[in-house]
Amino acid sequence: MNHNSTAKKAVGLALTLGAVGVGALLTARARATKPSPDDAPDYTGRHASGEMDVEGCTVTIGKPRQELYDHWRDFQNLPKFMENLLEVRPVEGQDKANWRIRAPAGHMVDVVTEVAEDRKSEVIAWRSVEGSEIETTGRVTFTDAPGSRGTRVSLIIGYKPPAGAMGRIFAKAFRREPQIQSRHDLKRFKMLMETGEIATSARTKDQTRKAKMEEEA
Amino acid sequence: MRALTWQGHQDVRVETVDDPEIINPRDAILKITSTAICGSDLHLYDGVIPGVLPGDILGHEFMGEVVETGPGSTLQKGQRVIVPFPIACGQCFHCTIEQFSCCENSNPVEKQDLTAPLYGHPLTGIFGYSHLAGGYSGGQAEYVRVPFSDVGPVVVPDHLTDDQVLFLTDILPTGWQAAEYAEIGPDDTVAVWGCGPVGLFAVQSAIAMGAAKVIAIDHYPHRLELAKKLGAEIVNFRESNVLQALMEMSGGLGVDAVIDAVGMEAHGFAADNLADAVKQKVGIGADRAHVLRQAILACRKGGRVSIPGVYGGLADKFPTGALMEKALKVRTGQTHVHKYTKMLLEKIEKGELDTTFLISHHLPLEDAAEGYRNFHDKQDEWTKVILRPGMERGTARAGQAQETQQA
Ligand SMILES: NC(=O)c1ccc[n+]([C@@H]2O[C@H](COP(=O)([O-])OP(=O)(O)OC[C@H]3O[C@@H](n4cnc5c(N)ncnc54)[C@H](O)[C@@H]3O)[C@@H](O)[C@H]2O)c1
Ligand SMILES: [Zn+2]
Ligand SMILES: [Zn+2]
């Protein structure tokens, strides 16, 4: 993994987190956007709907809803599977958390988030508070899979490339990254919950992605 | 440690590389005692499976002694184990229904994007089998890191030699699964293309499952001879018209089941194969599907097509019409090795299956490159090569009677 592609990944999350006020878009289905509505999730649409990009991804995890919800709801667990999230700390005295994110070129960005929606074993949505360096929102839902197959977990994010000259450059170069990043994060979550670890083909500790990212930071 | 590394097209070398380490809790490290070269490795050697990088360690058929374990491993130091070639977590949906080679959790997330666009789903992790299958270091080395070591490895009893149990890692279960997929009944005639290790074990399995007649097809006299010794009738495609021969030998009905144990690098000068070979050379992901086409044509109406042979890309002139109009049933895939290891180990112990008859050479790991060259260029005599890290350089031994010296 060379420096370039790591930087690219980092930009990915920065963009993911660059979402703005898309709460309304993040419902399971935005009925109004397809001229001839069907049952497929809105983010699978062939045509862009509105000014915001909405990305979504679903995995089935062989664990009960509650266990998955509980793990995700404890935001301090998120850095275990969200590669560019370095640390999540509760903000004292408030129901908020400080997310420290790896940004391009060895930078670090702090974002304060608050919970926008929270229903036990069903849904968690979050967004950055006003005045954050970058703005972010995301929504994860947990529904029973058929029979004994566990839980379907959907992560939906909406984003608008961050503002400013840098933002524009990143957005142009890495348009698809947020989708890839969120899919990867979700699959790592599945690995962690099902197997207790995240697969790596590294032969030595120095070759793991984590080690390489730290080395480059 | 020393390890066999891929360097480029038909260029492999034994080099000194970093030793593996325990990384995840369920990992174990093995000290390799025996490791084989597989027909699948030849696809990498020939560069027809992409995604291998210079320096990658090959090898997915290996066994050895446990020398280190992570806290989540159930193995103990000193145990002697064989390791299935697909890497499986044991806990995902596919693993729980015994589709181990379809495990969702063994190919690292960032590598999954290499194959998902081509196949609709990512490949499962496989040892030493390109970055498409995860980029794991293989076992043609002195040591190997084995993930999910609580699921795959099987402890083997001391009274069985390496030669007897090594093929539990791949080709023995692969031949068995191929025959199982042929759904053999007592009156059935089964045709097997390819008398390499996979084809030979498919022949042996088909006979063990009670087929009335098994017909083996190849062009190498010695390999055909091995099939004949197992009890098969043989057809040399350089001497006989295969389709006509199979129709006649199955009483004009067509064979009840066909097994393609050749895969994407079919030999021969049939027109379709030559066209495929050109496309494969220019690197557009073309499979040489000559054998599969022939097998489909040879299969009787309503019969079964079993495909253990590996394909990786796309095939032209695929006989969709014959497939549909003849009502054929197709089964294929990388072998769900984990599903078969214990059952086949029992059969080896009881002496019901001979696993050593096809071994032609033992080489020191140091001479692995020579092993590749000969297994590739002199297929007739070099039927199966076993590499041993401990063996001294230049001490190649032919034949299977190497049972005496177990470490
Ligand atoms: N499904 C699995 O899990 C799995 C596992 C192991 C190997 N494989 C695959 O099985 C195949 C065979 O493996 P192997 O180790 O026996 O390889 P191998 O190269 O030793 O044997 C292949 C044999 O096929 C013969 N052959 C070539 N063209 C032929 C033709 N037109 N008609 C009849 N025979 C022909 C060759 O002469 C050779 O003897 C390979 O594609 C390999 O990748 C699959
Ligand atoms: Zn193999
Ligand atoms: Zn699995």
Automatic annotation (TrEMBL), chain A:
Keyword Cell inner membrane attributed: no
Domain of life, per lineage: Bacteria
Record's keyword terms, sorted: Signal
Residues in the signal sequence: 1-24
A Pfam family annotated for this UniProt entry: Polyketide_cyc
Keyword NAD: no
Similarity comment: Belongs to the ribosome association toxin RatA family.
Name by which UniProt lists this protein: Cyclase
Automatic annotation (TrEMBL), chain B:
GO MF, one annotated term: oxidoreductase activity
Keywords assigned: Metal-binding, Oxidoreductase, Zinc
Cofactor(s) this protein cannot do without: Zn(2+)
Entries under PROSITE patterns matching the protein: ADH_ZINC
Keyword Acetylation: no
Alcohol dehydrogenase-like N-terminal domain: residues covered: 25-153
Positions of the Alcohol dehydrogenase-like C-terminal domain: 197-265
InterPro entries in UniProt: ADH-like_C, ADH-like_N, ADH_Zn_CS, GroES-like_sf, NAD(P)-bd_dom_sf
Domain of life: Bacteria
Pfam entry (one): ADH_N
Keyword Transcription regulation: no
Family: Belongs to the zinc-containing alcohol dehydrogenase family.
PANTHER family (alphabetical): DEHYDROGENASE, ZINC-CONTAINING, PUTATIVE (AFU_ORTHOLOGUE AFUA_2G02810)-RELATED, ZINC-TYPE ALCOHOL DEHYDROGENASE-LIKE
The name this protein goes by in its record: Alcohol dehydrogenase catalytic domain-containing protein
